[in-house]
Amino acid sequence: MQTTxxxxxxxxxxxxxxxxxxxxxNAYRAATRRSTKGLDAGYAKLAASRLVxxxxxxxxxxxxxxxxxxxxxxxxxxVSDRAILAVDxxxxxxxxxxxxxxxxxxxxxxxxxxxxxxxxxxxxxQISLGIATKLNDASRELVQRVSGQTAVKAAVxxxxxxxxxxxxxxxxxx
Length: 174
What we know:
By secondary structure, this protein is mainly α. It has helices spanning 6-48, 55-104, 112-147, 151-160.
């Protein structure tokens, strides 16, 4: 579907920006989970070592670390949820403002000056939308990479990629 008005492109741009922001928040969330799993594994290995003298102390250390990890993950979840709510409300507010402006300025759509400006603004708006779409795609890939879901996709991509052809360097005799 191709949007043909600057206002429709602006609303679509807000949607792309909303999705990108949510992807970045989800990347933060996934990174927090992933790092705490690594912390858990390393701490459990340390506690299982001979450095800790008694089993009771080992258990107490592992339990306190898990409680700390749970607090960290729960805090990150709450912050992420609030950030997503803020992104949603800001995007909704922006779209409402764009729609209100479009309805108030509808009387000027048939003016020659507006038509001339539209010819200049429309390609620039479409380029901006294309950039926002690519940023959204990149942020989606970031979420997948941070959460560890790209190993299979990378293998599929590598299998589909054509082999690079060898280039011969031809030297000219002088």
